[in-house]
Design a protein that fits this description.
Blueprint: H1 11-24, E1 30-33, H2 40-49, E2 58-62, H3 68-76, E3 77-78, E4 90-91, H4 93-96, E5 101-105, H5 112-124, E6 126-128, E7 135-137, E8 141-146, H6 150-155, H7 161-167, E9 170-173, H8 184-199, E10 205-206, H9 208-214, H10 222-236, E11 241-242, H11 250-256, H12 268-286, H13 291-298, H14 302-311
Parallel strand pairs: 1-8, 1-9, 2-5, 5-8, 10-11
Antiparallel strand pairs: 3-4, 6-7
Helix pairs in contact: 1-2, 5-7, 8-10
Length: 315
Amino acid sequence: MDFFGIIGKSKEMKKIYELVDKVSKTDCTVLIQGESGTGKELIARAIHYNSRRQGKPFLPINCGALPESLLESELFGHEKGSFTGAISTTKGVFEEAHGGTIFLDEIAEITPALQIKLLRILEGGDFKKIGSNKMFRVDVRIIAATNSNLIMAIKNNSFREDLYYRLNVVSINLPPLRERIEDIPFLAMHFLKKASEKFKKPLTSIAPEVIQSFTRYSWPGNIRELENFIESATILSNSTMISPQDLPTLSEKIGINPRKTRLTDLPFYEARDLFEKDYIEKILSRCDGNISKASKLGRISRKSLRTKAKKYNLM
């Protein structure tokens, strides 16, 4: 199965691959949810190009990039003279994508009026162009995506509940990069190869300390941000290996957005020390730094408590 540039060997991504494989064999509507930069369009493309519709168009539309009037025309087309500037009759993407797939990104951004028209297509496969009374029938698979909480949008009356359930036949939830750090080395090397070819630079590796730093960052921009980091480092590098000096802003970014480390991401002894430090820090705080009170509360000898507090620079 071709995953069209989707990189990852983590257990989280293996589950995604299995789900993509299953839904590709059907025509069901799919809702892809995940933060910006997690690769929602790549997943949509993988579904389309591994389905029976692969020989037909795949048309992506960013619903948040256009005002309502332009988006409606883009989706459904319009008749000549239906509005100022409509100098000819045009097809919309639903007509253009007949037999194929439409990927509606940022689906939460569409207006209530367009939600009704989209619901009609999902229910019956037909629609009207702007300025026309003629009904058009199409065979189109819809894959939608959002980085918003649609359940909250329903509660706030900004998204139709019936449309949500029509779109959410199968849901694919993409994990953020900070929750799949074991994929970072593979992604980084993939982007390094692309950047080296793009900028004609002889880079072939990334220093281990750089990869280690990457795992300490929370990556609010996810995979897209990692790719930008690698491109920037490739441009700045004067070697065959990306080193810390090629990423001058990384330390500052880690300080602002550190990744919250799960204990299970660490070796046993590091995890034990992290727990011990956190426990002692909190128990001392509860006792206003009083060693005697803290030792009684924690049922640990004063000597051991003092030794551990000094070890972790807590006193």
